[in-house]
Amino acid sequence: MRARAVWFTGPWRVEVRDEPVREPGPGEVRVRTRLSAVSRGTELLVLSGAAPAALAADEHIGALAGALSFPLKYGYGCVGEVEAAGPGTAPDLVGRTVFAFHPHQDLFCLPAADLRPVPEDLAGEDALFFAAMETAVTLVLDGRPFLGARVVVFGLGVVGLLATALLARFPLEVLAGIDPAPLRRKIAREAGAHAVFPPPEARPGGALLERLGAGGRTAGADLVLETSGVPEALDAAVGVAGFSGTVVVGSWYGTRRVSLDLGSAFHRRRLRLVSSQVSTLAPEATGRWSRNRRTGTTWEWIRRLQPGRYLTHRFPLEAAPEAYEFLRGGTGEALQVALVHQG
């Protein structure tokens, strides 16, 4: 059998290649993809050549074995149907709609244990957001928002938007979003943000700081999530955090250096910088939280928020180069972009 797969062959070079697909082995299944999600942040960073080439693609995802060096297949959000099961695999998986952490490929084999079976009451377009929602859930778990908190989200792309929608369910005093794109700011307001601002308003004297308090020890944000992927945004995030505030860094900057002003208010404000990455759970949470519990929470909030409405652009698999070029253009009119696979 043959498959079509997306390959990154060099900086900003994308090809769709033909390759063989073997029969599923013991404990494995073969999946025929219907849709795959393109990550505007992580995938474009890898495609641009700004990822550390010696870094493992993802030590927790078997389909992403190897380093982040060209050429490589990269992606982690496929929704499709199981069409065959290998020896020792539960036969009732055949025909099931599943989510898989796998690069963009229309037919592939992987261990059945790596699948996330999609609940039967969820549409495939909603299930496509599993990875993004799981990341948003992890950000909120790491941020630990509390009653009456002032929270700011930098970056209202898919992950930032979903995190905003989750945070809108908390009894917060302020929930503000920062993004340069008017469309994303508008959708964040619809998702529950109390206020949204373009990045210049996060600077000293801007409207965001006015919203967070006029000054003094109680001014500023209790919690800031940085999900923009823009290195300069982290310094702005630190700047709006209040005394003893927490800045959760969900962005991956790759090889791009971040310049932080740690010589002004950072030290005296006793700020905390927290690294958040979805491949693991924070050690302090693992006494109660497991991957299975987080998976259940992720599906529940996909059910409640129905993120499939944020799927704004679809490209045929064979037009993958055009899809990445479209995203490279930095259009503010795109939220989730997907590749459509013909079965």
TrEMBL record:
Keywords: Membrane, Metal-binding, Oxidoreductase, Transmembrane, Transmembrane helix, Zinc. One of its GO terms (molecular function) is oxidoreductase activity. The keyword Transcription does not apply. The chain crosses the membrane at residues 151-172. Residues 159-280 form the Alcohol dehydrogenase-like C-terminal domain. InterPro entries: ADH-like_C, GroES-like_sf, NAD(P)-bd_dom_sf. Its cofactor is Zn(2+). SUPFAM superfamilies: GroES-like, NAD(P)-binding Rossmann-fold domains. Belongs to the zinc-containing alcohol dehydrogenase family. This is Zinc-binding dehydrogenase.
